[in-house]
Amino acid sequence: MKYLTEFRNGEIARAQAREIHAMTTRPWKIMEVCGGQTHSIIRNGIDQMLPAGIGMVHGPGCPVCVTPLELIDKALAIAAQPGVIFCSFGDMLRVPGTEGDLFQVKGRGGDVRVVYSPLDALELAVRNPDKQVIFFGVGFETTAPANAMSVHQARRRGIGNFSLLVSHVLVPPAIEAIMSSPGNEVQAFLAAGHVCSVMGYWQYPPLAGKYGIPIVVTGFEPLDLLDGIHRAVRQLETGRHEVENAYDRVVTYRGNEAAQRLLAEVFEVTDRAWRGIGVIPKSGWRLNADYRDFDAEDRFQIAGIHTQESPLCRSGDVLRGAIKPAQCPAFGKECSPRHPLGATMVSSEGACAAYYNYGRFLPAEELASAGKAMSAF
After folding, report:
1. Could you tell me which residues are beta bridge partners of residue 274?
2. Are 342 and 96 in contact, with CB atoms under 8 Å apart?
3. pLDDT tens, N- to C-terminus, the chain (377 residues)
4. Strand 278-287 versus strand 267-274 pairing type
């Protein structure tokens, strides 16, 4: 398959890894922001191919994972109401709230449905005029245009029984929050190619200059990621801090300007809480005044939410890059994909799910040490 098998060539990958080894003279910490990149790194063992001093830090790039607990609890409360059809992508149905998840609401008789697009939910509203249809709109900039289009169409067509429960978050403010946090050790970023396909990368040069960090836009296949790491290390080793586009087969500097115009029409920037991290100023979108009638939070006015995270779960530390998943005492024991304590074990982009699914029950450093010990025999 074009643009897929070409980027999974093992011989080229090993050659790229050798080049990274040859140029590396000191330890560096590089964060990949996207959960899809995290899964590719772990699935393909890319972190184990790197020099011992190159540490890959898994960032808060899983939109399901960073959706705040309070909003999950509001979703549970809305979905349990009579006369409601609550729609979401599949991952969200298993994310634990304070008391249960959306699957459990469905099991108790709630009309909770998995859809593949917010426009599918909009058509459900058309076919069920006596029901209130809500779509749980989560995600980074990548998924926002489709959600914006759904309310744009609802308004244009006069579909008044459709609304969005919005939890959109933005990458640049997250990078700013990470770099300005006490004890931060991240020295370079791999930017998510799909986010940049929508937004471009014109927002990143000020961040690279302000914090003296290389930012490399990368894709998701093994050679994409190794190329991105190679470029980041080369900049770090030569004292540069620039924005590079290593995914130019998809991403342009300005991005998809038509999508950006639609986003500006429908949404406005707002402070947003990130699960396990806290409130990051101006880090999200909400429906603006022209579209506020389609905001499910305003429409349902759920009050009396009292959230409580599992005391065993350290997913917040995982999302901040403070620990690796296998360093959480509950990992693989009390917490597993069948019985998750936190969203990072649920989502198809969650770091904990990646470590569990690909057998990473030890940190990469310990795995590397174990491999060297075995090679001595």
Report:
1. 278
2. yes
3. 466 677 877 789 999 999 999 999 999 999 998 888 999 999 999 999 999 999 999 988 888 888 888 999 999 999 999 999 999 998 888 888 888 899 999 999 999 999 999 999 999 999 999 999 999 999 999 999 999 999 999 999 999 999 999 999 999 999 999 999 888 899 999 999 999 999 999 999 999 999 999 999 999 999 999 999 999 999 999 999 999 999 999 999 999 999 999 999 999 999 999 887 889 999 999 999 999 999 999 999 887 777 777 889 898 888 878 888 999 999 999 999 888 888 889 877 889 989 998 888 865 556 555 444 433 43
4. antiparallel
Task: Give burial (CB, 10 Å; 0-12/13-18/19+) of 90.
Answer: middle
Look up the CATH number of domain 64-170+255-300: 3.40.50.11740
Pairing label, strands 267-274, 132-139: unpaired
Phi-psi region of 332 (alpha: psi -120 to 50; beta: other; left: phi over 0): left
Q: Say if residue 45 is exposed, middle or buried (CB neighbours under 10 Å; 0-12, 13-18, 19+).
A: middle
- CA neighbor of 266 nearest in space, from 179, 369, 109, 149: 149
Residue 312 exposure: Cα atoms within 13 Å on the Cβ side: 12
- CATH 3.40.50.11750 residue ranges of the chain are 5-58+181-189+205-245
Rounded CA-CA distance 273/270 in Å is 10
Quick one: fold of 5-58+181-189+205-245?
Rossmann fold (3.40.50)
For CATH 3.40.50.11740, list the domain ranges present in the chain. 64-170+255-300
